[in-house]
Design a protein that fits this description.
With 390 residues, the protein is α/β, with parallel strands linked by helices. 38% of the residues lie in helices and 14% in strands. The chain has twelve helices and 15 strands. It has an eight-stranded mixed beta sheet with strand order 1-9-8-5-4-2-3-14, sandwiched between helices. Strands 10-12-15-13 form a four-stranded antiparallel beta sheet. A three-stranded antiparallel beta sheet has the order 7-6-11, with no helix packed on it. α2 runs parallel beside α8. The radius of gyration is 22 Å and the shape is globular.
Amino acid sequence: MSLSKIYLSPPHMSGNEQKYINQAFDSNWVAPLGPNVDAFEKEIASYVGASGAVAVNSGTAAIHLALSLLGVTKGDKVFCSSLTFVASANPILYLGAQPVFIDSESDTWNMSPRALEKAFQDAHLEHKLPKAVIVVNLYGQSAKMDEILALCNQFDVPIIEDAAESLGSTYRGKVSGTFGRFGIFSFNGNKIITTSGGGALISNDVEALQRARFLATQARDSTLFYQHSEMGYNYRMSNILAGIGRAQLEVLDERVEKRRLIFERYSKELSNITGLSFMPELKNTRSNRWLTVVTIDQELGISTKRLIEALAEENIEARHVWKPLHMQPLFENTPYYSHDKNEDVAQILFKTGICLPSGSNLTEEEQNRVISCLKNTIYKELCKVKEVKI
């Protein structure tokens, strides 16, 4: 009998989604926009404490809109975290701008203030400051926003906070996604809450958000007929998906608590293995622990590839940490600032990091399977190493 599949981060429905979906069908609001979209925008803005939100069809769309609102055009520079999914940087290319990638640092795995400062100093000397800085909060952990904000304020460059993975996290008591000029969230199927596919742009700049709505609905002019004076996008969220989001948002705090409990159990069971370390949580922050991530010291004698393969053999999904963007073929020869000339933190984390199953619907029995597989595989590999040495 084959073992059931354990996924990395599957959708977790609350059971209340159907109520909002039925409302959409009963009112025949099944197309983009509608009462659920309006309500979802108000509810997400209220949850994070922002003045407003615009619900869109992806987090990528939200980043694209944010860059457009900041006037990013062909030839401009945009600083961006390197250790992240490609969606953080693709919108820079949409606009013909030039990404400049910034390394991580070990305390948060997020953008290194030291590397960012070096990038700013060079840009200042070249008289070509970036139009924006995209800071990514990796796997739910906030970046060092105090230091990053200080640098960006010093050079008067706005921040887009990519909080796609950190909804429900906090930094010094303030909600993730609310530190920059714009914040973005993702509601993709694997995120801590989902609308199937979707995202949101948040800001305290209400006028900018109104402009975002205009651009996201094909930039249709306010006339009795279809008139378009500038280019727009088809980015708005459907009323049905917004209904799913409303039900998901109701249980967000529960989802955060469950994922933190999953992390704590992994930590309790695996922390005694020498050479295995967990992604840290910065002091005065609270990560949603969207994914539990571990690093494997090379001295342990086992590769991340081997561990992922062993888990796959047991029908358990695990993944490498994001491959840094400065290492991607798409961004070959793109400028990159490392944390230290002798240490590429992002590259090290990619080579040593593994994301473990962390879904809020992960059962204790399923987690035991993951833990047992990890322990058994590491033990067997260590025994092989000892035999070779003997």
